[in-house]
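call fold(seq) -> C-alpha cells
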Amino acid sequence: MAACGDDGGPIPIDCSWFEGDNCWKDSVAAAYACVDPNAEGTFHASRGECMYADGTTVTFAQPVPSTGFEDYEWSFSIGPADGEACMSFEDSDALGGSELVLETSEGRFRETANLTATGGTLRFDCPDGTSYQIGVIAALECDLSTVPGHVAVSSGGTVSFNFLGRASTDGDLFSCSDDTQ
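ret:
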C-alpha cells in the first residue's frame, strides 16, 4: 500500500523529509495563494474578522487577542467576503497531544502530536492519503524552521501569522491591524 510503511503504519521519516519537497509545503503554498502576502487587512472591532481592501476576509472562530497567544487556539478561514473559503486552519491542543489541520485546494493536511513522558511522535497525514511519522525527540534535532508549524507575532496593534516549514518566506499568510480611524 503506497500510503503506509511496511507494517501498514505511517512511513518513518527523518530531517530530510522536512528539508525536501513534501505535502506540507504544497499545502502551505496553496494557502498563501489565497491572499496577497504583502497586503495588510483591518480587524473588525470584535477582532473576529479581518478585511482586506480586495474583499478577502479572514474569519476567526474566536476573537484574536491583542497579545498573549500561548493559550489561543488558532482556527480561521480565508476567502472572499461572500464566497466559499479558499483555505482553513485549526490548531487544537488536547491533553497529551495536539492536532493541526490545514485544508486547501490541495486537500487536507493533518499533523498529530502524541506526546508521552519520553517524547512521543509526530504524524503527518497528507492530502493524497500518505502518512509519515517521526519521534518528537528526533524532530527536535532537525532545523525547527523546516518542521510544520506556525507562528504569530503582535506588534503595535498588528497581528501577523505565518506557517513554518514553507518553501518561501516572503510575506505573511495574514497581517491584520486594528482599525484606528
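DSSP finds three helices and 13 strands in the chain.
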